[in-house]
Write a structure and sequence with these properties.
The complex is a heterodimer. Chain A contains 13 helices and 31 strands. Chain A is an alpha+beta fold. Chain A is globular, with a radius of gyration of 27 Å. Chain B has 2 domains: 253 residues, TIM Barrel (Alpha-Beta Barrel); 57 residues, no CATH class. In chain B, 38% of the residues lie in helices and 25% in strands. Classes of the chains: A alpha+beta, B alpha/beta.
Chain lengths: 601, 383
């Protein structure tokens, strides 16, 4: 018998990074007795080492809790975690779609941030009941009235019943849980006997069971042995295991309407589990899909190459393994004249890219050269065909190109009013076009710009942070393609074109980028035994030249018995440094060089 | 097993601002001559059982300024060292590092009588401005006089020079060398000034307040020194050393060939191969004289140890051997470490050979002297 739907509450927590989501989740787990002291592990829901280090959640999880409320009734609460970064916007929206309510956690000393707001809008689109929680009230800088005003003005959310809390101190936990029970509506359903419809919220790879799917049942019931069909992929499986996290994984006989849990069904890869897909019963198929499904497409691309060519098979294996657990990661073999054999990899966004690169280096112990990120350009050729180009060196001959389109982002930036000028200047420099400037409150402004994604990739966020002393927060979403006059800038080292250093830029910026890149590279390419010439070229015409002078003295003066170990270690360290370099011709180029374009002032 | 002994004497009249050796400025009368000799002898005694099977090829008294040491005490240590070994090479080389401020004819004679047969004199420069820049206590005439005194009493004398001081051009250094050669020395060490952290110069450098020669001046001076000394019959037999054939420092050649050496004295380093593993163990004793005096003769005097793998030793063989004109003997490396040096290094060797930097000539791998200025890059490539 399934748990009565009217006693189920599904909710998630919306919060900006650092506003205390993970701590709050832990306290809720403790308060409901789901996590004993012995099992306590700080920030239980973030289970990957990397996530914990960066304080961000990449993979969503859900936890089933039991809570006996003040009305004496035992409720089943499902806390469904959401990924915490804009790169995972679509995944966030699916996690929220699995809920009826959300706790909006706002740091009482900081106020609303752009990312919070973006997720609140997602929650409102999904008709979630939002319960504002003002966290960190124990901090001296906490100002509940100010935050209340801000939430009311910016989001238009009634905060008269906002809950003051301190997850760190365990203040407000009971009030939060009571509010979840009273204010979050129970799930709507066509009933436990209706044809099965379940939302695929997330998936991950288990070495023994294959891909595992986290689902939220909307109608019907799922059990081990149920033959299922995924409506988007049309794939069919038989459920072999069904379970919930409470918070540790536990097998259960069935999941009924409104409930969240996971199943295994001998699914080969996570790519067969598309987030947002609708799962139904094979025998009694639901006709209507759950709304909101979207194919996830990578937005940002870069080349990843091993510094040692012999590491290529290991890199491939590592990418294969990562992909088991990361359906958004794409890759295909790529050959660069400069860097040899490697892979062109696609990512959801910059953070996703950084995470993958870091995991490759850390978990798989690979020494990598990664190229600067690129977006997908739509290159319309004279013969009328459109060629998607995600690697600048693959841009066709200019005479064959009719026009090029580049992707744009709609970027929303929240900033204290004092920094409006700095933000506008930055956006204009990055070829943005203004959509709106809104005063969220007296001293907080929301600036909305359409910006070329290519410009956003290039250090935009760091620049934004430094221009606003760290006060700005940003959210973005794709806003289509636009035609622009784009050209490729090539870099030559000792007369040899280094394909991995090529960049596609706006024609008006090309001179500037070429000169800047040559100048940056002069500072990055270490002095070597021979003089190194660095040139920038557009369509074969040299537009800038810099020279790295030869290193004339590279020899240790003294090396005797007392100092041999230290000198050996110094040289070993130098060797290690060179391992991170790629020899292009006879010139050693450090990894940094391939990202120099991100650093042009 | 051929073995060298290094004896460290940790005191100077004044610590030089560039010096990162284990040395302490002290007044002449405060040096504990006999107590320090006793401590060194205790350490020798502690190590003695490993020495009976070995052949002593050289002893080097370094510092600090060992010419400050009472020659009688130094002699006591030297004779104990020679008698601790099972065999002593008939061509035993015994060198003492000297500073012009503590070397006159009488001192040189006393050292000779104590058994010393080679002196290495810290001239550093014959230019008064540069001597001041280097914080030296002597002037040029005193340095030349010390060299003449040494030459009068001992057959083998080396002059230590430094270059790379601000404003110093190649011809300046060459004229200093010409002057020193008039004293008849048969060995010259010419060290490029190296800024080490933890020294006064290091601190100034960190603050951007230490003027230095440009790289081009360094390189030109290095090459000019070779030309000048070669024209006087000296061979550039190691990056910083020049000698008439046969007058090379055997003690240092022993280091560069990866030989075993025993260190005695405060902060001295020793390194003995382990025939069982083909690795080696290296250790350093307590650096501070007071601690050394207290702990010498016990295991506690050992302040640092390092176990070297055969591969570590191969890298050291490259780092050291390629500094020399004679190069690295592949068969010797194989015998010392069991490792075939060329294996796994084929690509780097091919690359460097193709550029004409490295020459593999039968058993010997060498970096040609015209590429010594790029030696670190070449060696790390081969690491």
């Amino acid at each position: 018998m399934t748990f009565p739907v009217e006693r189920i509450r599904n909710f998630s927590i919306i919060a900006h990074i650092d506003h205390g989501k993970s701590t709050l989740a832990d306290r809720i787990l403790e308060f409901t007795g789901a996590l004993s002291d012995r099992e306590k592990q700080a920030q239980f829901l973030d289970n990957m080492e990397l996530e914990r280090e960066r304080g961000i959640t990449i993979k969503a999880q859900s936890v089933r809790l039991e809570y006996r409320a003040d009305d004496g009734i035992l409720y089943e609460l499902n806390l469904i975690d959401t990924p915490g970064h804009v790169d995972f916007n679509y995944e966030v929206s699916r996690s929220l779609a699995a809920c009826e309510g959300a706790l909006l956690v706002v740091d009482a000393s900081q106020g609303v941030e752009a990312q919070t707001l973006a997720n609140v809008y997602l929650a409102l689109e999904n008709n979630l009941e939002i319960i504002p929680v003002f966290n960190k009230i124990d901090l001296p800088g906490a100002d509940i009235d100010r935050v209340r005003r801000e939430v009311e003005e910016v989001i238009g959310l009634d905060c008269s019943e906002a809950i003051p809390a301190s997850a760190k101190e365990g203040i407000g936990m009971k009030e939060i849980l009571e509010a979840v029970v009273k204010r979050v509506p129970p799930p709507k359903t066509a009933g436990a006997d209706a044809p099965l419809r379940a939302l695929l919220v997330d998936s991950w790879y288990d070495a023994y069971r294959g891909a595992m799917a986290l689902i939220r049942v909307v109608d019907g019931t799922i059990r081990p042995g149920t033959k299922i069909k995924m409506l988007a992929t049309r794939a069919e499986y038989e459920v072999t295991e069904l379970g919930v996290f409470a918070p540790f994984a536990r097998a259960i006989p069935e999941l009924g309407p409104g409930e969240a849990g996971f199943f295994a069904a001998a699914i080969r890869t996570v790519r067969d589990c598309k987030v947002g897909d609708t799962i139904t019963e094979l025998r009694r198929q639901a006709t209507e899909r759950l709304p909101g499904f979207r194919e996830v497409k990578p937005m940002v691309f870069c080349g990843i190459f091993p510094t040692e060519p012999s590491e290529y098979p290991n890199l491939r294996e590592a990418l294969e393994k990562l992909q088991l657990n990361d359906s958004a990661l794409t890759w295909e073999p790529e050959t660069s004249e400069a860097l040899g054999f490697g892979f062109r990899c696609g990512f959801l966004g910059m953070l996703h890219m950084e995470i993958v690169q870091e995991r490759l280096e850390r978990e798989y112990d690979l020494d990598l050269i990664t190229t600067a990120p690129s977006v997908v350009y739509h290159v319309y050729q004279n013969d009328g065909t459109m060629l998607p180009v995600e690697n600048p060196s693959r841009l066709p001959d200019p005479v064959k190109i009719d026009h090029i389109e580049e992707p744009f982002f709609k970027v929303s930036i929240h900033v204290p009013s004092a920094y409006v000028g700095a933000v506008l200047k930055l956006c204009e420099e990055r070829r943005g076009s203004q959509r709106a400037i809104q005063y969220a409150s007296q001293d907080r402004v929301i600036i909305v710009y359409d910006l070329p994604l290519g410009e956003v990739l290039f250090d935009f966020f760091d620049r934004l942070k430094s221009a606003t002393k760290g006060y700005a927060s940003m959210d973005y979403e794709l806003a289509g393609y636009q035609t622009n006059p784009l050209v490729r800038v090539d870099m030559l080292i000792n007369g040899e074109k280094v394909d991995a250093l090529s960049a596609i830029v706006h024609r008006e910026k090309a001179q500037y980028v070429g000169r800047g890149l040559a100048d940056k590279l002069r500072g990055i390419v270490p002095r070597q035994q021979y003089e190194v010439a660095i040139q920038a070229a557009i369509g074969g015409k040299i537009i800038a030249r810099e020279t790295v002078r030869a290193l004339r003295k590279d020899v240790t003066a003294k090396c005797y018995g007392g100092d041999i170990s230290r000198k050996r270690k110094l040289l070993e360290k130098q060797k290690e440094g060179k391992r991170r370099m790629k020899a292009v011709g006879s010139v050693e180029i450090p990894q940094e060089a391939f990202h120099a374009i991100l650093k042009i002032e | 097993m051929l073995t060298s002994v290094y004896v460290h004497f940790p005191w100077c009249l004044k610590k030089c601002p560039y010096c990162d050796f284990n040395s302490y400025g002290t007044a002449r009368q405060d040096v504990p001559h006999a107590a320090y000799a006793d401590a060194v002898l205790r350490e020798l005694e502690f190590r003695s059982e490993t020495l009976a099977e070995r052949t002593l090829v050289s002893v080097f008294f370094g510092g600090g300024t060992p010419s400050l040491w009472d020659p009688e005490q130094l002699g006591r240590v030297l004779s104990a060292v020679t008698s601790a070994f099972g065999t002593v090479s008939p061509s035993l080389e015994v060198t003492v590092e000297c500073n012009p401020t503590s070397l006159d004819r009488a001192r040189a004679a006393a050292l000779r009588e104590a058994g010393v047969n080679r002196l290495s004199v810290g001239v550093q420069s014959l230019d008064e401005t540069r001597l001041r820049f280097l914080g030296r206590l002597h002037d040029a005439p005193l340095a030349l006089e010390a060299l003449r005194a040494a030459r009068a009493e001992l057959p083998r004398v080396s002059a230590d020079f430094m270059f790379g001081m601000p404003g110093q051009k190649a011809p300046d250094f060459v004229s200093e060398l010409e002057r020193v050669l008039e004293t008849g020395v048969d060995h010259v060490s010419a060290y490029a000034l190296t800024v080490e952290s933890g020294t006064q110069f290091g601190e100034l450098h960190r603050k951007g307040r230490l003027p230095l020669a440009t790289d081009d001046d360094y390189a030109e001076t290095f090459l000019a020194a070779r030309r000048c000394l070669a024209s006087h019959g000296m061979r550039h037999y190691e990056v910083s050393n020049h000698a008439r054939p046969g007058e090379e420092a055997r003690h240092n050649l022993h280091y560069w060939r990866g030989g075993d050496y025993l260190g005695l004295g405060a902060g001295a380093v020793g390194c003995l191969a382990d025939p069982a593993t083909l690795g080696a163990s290296r250790w350093r004793s307590e650096s501070h004289p007071a601690h050394y005096l207290e702990r010498s003769g016990t295991k506690a005097v050992q302040a640092w140890t390092e176990a070297l793998s055969p591969e570590d030793r191969v890298r050291e063989a490259l780092m050291l051997g390629l500094r020399t004109l004679e190069g690295v003997s592949l068969s010797r490396v194989a015998q010392q470490t069991g490792v075939t040096l060329t294996r796994g290094r084929e690509q780097a060797l091919a690359r460097r050979t193709a550029r004409g930097e490295v020459l593999l000539d039968g058993d010997v791998l060498r970096v040609l002297p015209e590429h010594w200025l790029a030696l670190d890059a070449i060696v790390t490539d081969l690491f």
